[in-house]
Specification:
Largest interface: A-B, 63 and 64 residues
Strand content of chain B: 15-25%
Number of helices of chain A: 24
Strand content of chain A: under 5%
Shape of chain B: globular
Number of strands of chain B: 11
Number of helices of chain B: 16
Distance between the termini of chain A: 23 Å
Radius of gyration of chain B: 24 Å
Radius of gyration of chain A: 24 Å
Oligomer: heterodimer
Distance between the termini of chain B: 61 Å
Number of strands of chain A: 0
Order of helices and strands of chain B: HEHEHEHEEHHEHHEHHEHEEHHHEHH
Structural class of chain A: mainly alpha
Structural class of chain B: alpha/beta
Shape of chain A: globular
Order of helices and strands of chain A: HHHHHHHHHHHHHHHHHHHHHHHH
């Protein structure tokens, strides 16, 4: 447990505390009165109100649209299901700059919706809500659907034999079993939408601002560090609250449920009702997830007159054009290297943390469990600026170091590793190890023969998630990536920020490549799914 | 339990391995900050551009190796420089403008140094210089409303010339501007309206602009390349606003990057709406290579670099002997009397203006 604690203290708590202190203790004395002052401003209250209600609305809309999807993915078998499940997860690890431009292309001026129906949704709250569904669909499908697939359908059938109606049976048997998973997914979606940054910034325009966007504006534009610090604290408090409730629901989920192999519960849809449901879900997925992704791909192959072209892909290999000191294609190599290093760090730190959490119980450990999730909810700008001002002196002079980026990316990877490993580690029966020891196995051999085979797949899945999340990390990376070593998302953002057809096309081409890399790693994950329901 | 311990020990070892590796990687890559280093690092915003030939010339002349660190948009770059003050990321900062200069000076971001080329700065531009020689003026440019010539010709309307024109009914729903909180041309335009209308009256002017259908977007890219009907990007994106806040140098850019080059630029400049922006460079306090930094500052203010700027960053050189390149001169719009404002006045009021503007126009 020591290493994860040290890692979080040095690379998370210290930088974040330092930047907050810079804001609230400008002259060596705490100015806590600023908290009240900032919170009293009507603009700030408006931000708080908008942050909360859009998160509630986004979460409700996501559940409404994704729960039928969770059912369909859990209970029906149909061709292409594995691929589709990987594809719907792509948005979750896609950087928001990429998705934001896809939605602009769909909902903005001259977009598909504008051309077919004359409707424009950019700079409206609808664009934000729909993009949030796009990003978080997979959270619900994976958490709720994952568990749903393992519930024994015979329990519900038994209830029906005993005279319960179809609905009563579902309400009395399945719903209670699902409730903790639904609650967990709801809280995660709420957390992600509450701290939404890129979506709101790109699609919302100047009129809409979440806490996270406001922290960014206050820090990097207006340079009111004390206001930013206050907002960071407010967001921190909210996120801690969400995570504590989440930890509580997740723990409740470990109540004994009779779980079966997911492969045995799914079958072909029967009857017109089930076929209609399947068709409805597939249509929703096509419209909300596949279409924005397809728009990106299409634009990467489309020249100015609408013809097919490979110009943008070819241009990626050239340093001419000025946006970079190196050809943009190098970003792929950088991204892969950074993501590999970040994955290694996240696996070591997250794996150790999960092991520690499995062996010990008690309030303190549970608090640590929630603490490990914090990087998902704390402003990336805060972390990035924090890195900048804290990791600049020996022995931690990392500011000019290559390792800065993977360290920041590992911060967001660790929660995924912990959440994937924890349920699996907890399910390993201690008696197996004891049996091995009794039979004369050395501790190392017992670990190798007992633990490793059971944990290996979870470890690989965790690695895959950490890898994909690192590939897509944008918020912190953009602050610390060196200009001659941009990652894919950073390169995309920089190309989008430049005028000209060629730059735009290259941004789309790079986005497409990033999507392919993410999709491939997720497809590999699908093949490795464990029997246990991961918490993501 | 002993298994757990072993596993833990192995993992800790792996973790330490990473830390050790990182230490190695650090020592091999942290070369730019060594004492007596032959590398000089220029920190700038992401719009920094210079031809490779000119940068090589600097390296050959001075014997230093030049490293450029492009650090986000202008505002972010300045803020990051302030946050890392005393232990900066480089030796010279280029790209702090007159709207943000005070933020840097108040925070003692720069060391005093008078660049060799400073004497050659055009007389007319001298008043913009920092009085204590903490920064060196490198370039100027004008933030002005640009118009789509074709739109106004087709409609047979005279394009606007002044701030007063912009609130007239014939220009209703035509203008797109940037948010001054998030964009430097947006901020320049806001300050221009304050300079023109006065400390007290400017909110009334913006009320009229709002009633006349001004549209606000967050950044220059979106305003110019998507909303504006006159730019190459805007045409493709179906932009429908023929008036946009951009630069006096935007029309030459539109013309020079067209194929074939047109006889005249497709866009024009409303000359009565121009606010002069000036960009400075300075030696960062605590620079690891101050001598290299001074050489670089000299270079930025000398003829070679000044001649290279117009076609790379589309700004006006300030060196009195530098003539803009032929292409640039051909399409350039000459603004005779742009609005200016004392950096101190900007410093004292900027944040208040932006706040007031936000509650007036956006909310």
């Amino acid at each position: 447990m020591a290493l994860p604690v040290v890692f979080f203290a040095v690379f998370f708590a210290y930088p974040v505390t330092a930047i907050v202190a810079r804001g609230l203790r400008p002259a060596g004395a705490w100015e806590l009165g600023r908290i009240g002052e900032v919170l009293a401003q009507p603009e700030i209250r408006e931000v708080l109100w908008f942050t909360t209600w859009q998160a509630l609305a986004s979460t409700a809309l996501t559940l409404l649209i994704a729960l039928p999807g969770a059912y369909v993915f859990a209970r029906f078998s149909f061709p292409g299901k594995q691929v589709l499940r990987a594809v719907v997860t792509v948005p979750f690890v896609l950087p928001t700059v990429v998705a934001g431009s896809a939605f602009l292309a769909l909902l903005g001026r001259g977009g598909l919706l504008d051309e077919t129906a004359g409707v424009r949704l950019d700079t409206t709250v609808w664009a934000i809500l729909l993009a949030h569904v796009f990003f978080n669909y997979a959270v619900v499908v994976r958490t709720v659907g994952g568990l749903w697939a393992q519930l024994d359908p015979r329990q519900e059938e038994a209830a029906r034999v005993l005279g319960a109606s179809r609905f009563t049976a579902w309400r009395r048997v399945t719903l209670p079993a699902l409730r903790p998973a639904v609650a967990g997914a709801t809280l995660m979606v709420f957390l992600f939408t509450f701290t939404s940054f890129g979506v709101v910034q790109i699609l919302g325009g100047p009129a809409y601002s979440t806490l996270e966007v406001e922290i960014y504006r206050q820090t990097s534009q207006i340079f009111d560090l004390s206001a930013a610090a206050v907002l960071t604290l407010v967001q921190f408090a909210a996120v801690v609250l969400i995570l504590l409730v989440h930890a509580w629901t997740v723990r409740r989920r470990q109540d004994a449920l009779r779980l079966v192999d997911a492969a045995t519960t799914a079958r072909r849809p029967r009857g017109p009702g089930q076929w209609a449901l399947l068709a409805g879900v597939l249509a929703t997925v096509a419209a909300l997830i596949l279409l924005p992704l397809a728009v990106l791909v299409a634009r990467s192959f489309q020249d100015a007159d609408g013809g097919l072209t490979l110009t943008y892909y070819r241009a990626l290999t050239s340093a001419e054009g000025g946006a970079f000191l190196v050809p943009p294609i190098n970003a792929i190599g950088n991204s892969l290297l950074y993501a590999l290093a970040a994955t290694a760090i996240a696996l070591v730190v997250g794996g150790l943390a999960a092991a520690a959490l499995t062996r010990r119980a008690g309030r303190l450990v549970r608090g640590f469990d929630a603490l490990l999730m914090l990087p998902l909810g704390v402003s990336a700008v805060t972390v990035g600026f924090g890195f900048l001002i804290t990791l600049d002196e020996p022995p931690l002079d990392l500011r000019a170091s290559w390792w800065l980026v993977p360290l920041a990316q590992a911060l967001v990877g660790v929660p995924f590793v912990v959440r994937t490993m924890l349920p699996v580690l907890r399910s390993v029966d201690e008696r197996l190890r004891e049996a091995a020891a009794v039979l004369g196995a050395s501790p190392w051999r017992a670990w190798r023969e007992v633990d490793l085979p059971l944990v290996r797949r979870a470890l690989l899945i965790a690695a895959g998630f950490a890898f994909a999340v690192s590939l897509g990390e944008f918020g912190a990376t953009v602050f610390i990536a060196r200009p001659d070593e941009p990652t894919l998302p950073v390169a995309v953002a920089r190309l989008l920020g430049r005028a000209g057809e060629l730059n735009y096309g290259q941004a789309m081409a790079l986005s497409t490549l990033l999507m392919v890399v993410c999709a491939v790693s997720l497809l590999v994950l699908e093949r490795l799914r464990t029997d246990q329901a991961g918490e993501f | 339990m002993s298994t757990t311990k072993k596993v833990t020990a192995a993992a800790v070892a792996a973790g330490l391995g990473i830390v050790t590796l990182s230490a190695c990687a650090e020592s091999s890559s942290g070369d730019s900050h060594g004492s007596g280093s032959k590398t000089v690092t220029l920190v700038s915003h992401s719009s920094f551009a210079a031809s490779e030939k000119v940068l090589e010339e600097f390296e050959a002349e001075s014997g230093y190796k030049l490293k450029v660190l492009e650090d986000g948009d202008a505002g972010v770059a300045v803020n990051k420089a302030i946050l890392t003050k005393g232990n900066p990321q480089g030796d010279v900062f280029f790209g702090i403008d007159n709207t943000l200069l005070s933020r840097g000076l108040d925070n003692d971001l720069f060391e005093v140094y008078e660049a060799h080329g400073a004497d050659s700065v055009l007389l007319a531009k001298r008043p913009l210089l920092d009085k204590k020689d903490r920064v060196t003026l490198v370039d100027t440019g004008e933030i002005c409303v640009n118009y789509d010539k074709k739109y106004f010709a087709d409609k047979d309307i005279t394009p606007p010339e002044t701030f007063a024109d912009l609130v007239k009914p014939e220009y209703k729903n035509l203008l797109v501007v940037e948010n001054p909180a998030t964009s430097s041309p947006g901020l320049g335009f806001l300050i221009g309206t304050v300079a023109q209308e006065g400390n007290v009256e400017w909110p009334d002017y913006w009320k009229k602009l709002k009633d006349n259908g001004v549209k606000v977007v967050d950044g220059w890219d979106q305003a110019y390349n998507e909303e504006f009907s006159g730019s190459a990007g805007g045409k493709k994106a179906g932009g429908d606003r023929p008036l946009v806040v951009s630069y006096a140098s935007s029309p030459p850019v539109e013309a020079i990057y067209s194929d074939p080059k047109p006889a005249e630029a497709p866009t024009g400049v409303a000359k009565g709406t121009c606010f002069q922006q000036a960009e400075y460079a300075g030696l960062l306090a605590g620079a690891k290579n101050p001598e290299g930094g001074k050489a670089l500052l000299d270079f930025l203010s000398e003829k070679t670099f000044q001649e290279d700027m117009p076609l790379n960053m589309f700004v006006d050189p300030v060196h009195k002997d530098v003539k803009p390149p032929a292409d640039f001169a051909k399409y350039a719009v000459k603004v005779d009397a742009p609005l200016t404002m004392d950096p101190q006045r900007i410093a004292d009021n900027r944040d208040q203006w932006v706040k007031q503007w936000t509650s007036l126009v956006v909310k």
